[in-house]
Amino acid sequence: MTQIRLEPGDQAPDFTLPDADGTLVSLASFRGQRMIIYFYPAAMTYGCTKESCHFRDLAAEFAAVGAQRVGISADKVDTQKRFSTKHQFDFPLLSDPDFTVSAIFGARRRLASLGNRRVTFVIDTDRTVLDVITSEVSMHSHADRALEVLRERLGLTGTKHGCEMGECGACTVLVGGAPQLSCLVLPDQLDGAEGTTVEGPANRPG
Questions:
Q1: What are the helix (H) ranges across the chain?
Q2: How many C-beta neighbours within 10 Å does residue 200 have?
Q3: Which of 4, 5, 6, 12 lies closest to 126, judged by CA?
Q4: Who has greater pLDDT, 178 or 160?
Q5: Please, which residues have CB within 8 angstroms of residue 29's CB and are 6 or more apart in sequence?
Q6: For the chain, which terminal residue's Cβ has fewer other Cβ atoms within 10 angstroms, N or C?
Q7: Rounded to whole angstroms, how far apart are CA atoms 206 and 192?
Q8: Catalytic residue at 171?
Q9: What is the pLDDT of residues 18-30, one digit of tens each?
């Protein structure tokens, strides 16, 4: 199968794969959302567990920049189900046993027995690839860099309450009823936003 490597500036192609419940999921179903698509070698392994759990643990941060996370590997649906259930992942894990999608994105290895390459694609709302993260050894770097790219894309810079980019989680705001870290909310989202409330450190226990 011909290997195609997507690069920043390319358009991410649509695809359809089953998730951990066997439900078909396509990229088109996330229309208008920013996407983090990360390919990993194998479910239940140490490195892939560490990487995936970091994506899970940054759920609030990714939500604040309007990004949906999706993991893809060659594992079968039932394996993805066990992986997702064991670690309570709040995002889809898709099964690509024939490496069809991984080949299109450029994540397929020459030896199928080694699974996918560890590579993450950061995709904008118009399906433009913003960045490609390829570290095979730094498990946290994929989620961290993806978040950094999207914050830069949205112009979310600076500090608030002495923290960097909302890392402290000290303050949240409700924008349209949805909680977001105040450090990560664009000014025009707050100015005159009806029903916007702020919860600060003084209002939190401990």
A1: 46-57, 59-64, 77-87, 100-105, 141-153, 187-190
A2: 12
A3: 12
A4: 178
A5: none
A6: C
A7: 31
A8: no
A9: 999 999 999 999 9
Question: For the residues of 140-166, what is the DSSP string, one character each?
Answer: THHHHHHHHHHHHHTT--SEETTEETT
What's the gap between Cα 90 and its chain centre?
11
- Alpha-carbon Rg for the chain, nearest whole angstrom, is 18
Residue 168 pLDDT greater than 50, yes or no: no
> pLDDT tens for residues 36-88?
999 999 999 999 999 999 999 999 999 999 999 999 999 999 999 999 999 99
Structure-token match 């070698």, residue found: 41
Cβ atoms < 10 Å from Cβ of 185: 22
Closest CA to 68 of 43, 41, 93, 48: 93
8-state DSSP, 41? S
11: which strand partners?
128
Is the per-residue pLDDT at 11 higher than 80? Answer: yes
Give me the residue label for tokens 């993450």: 120
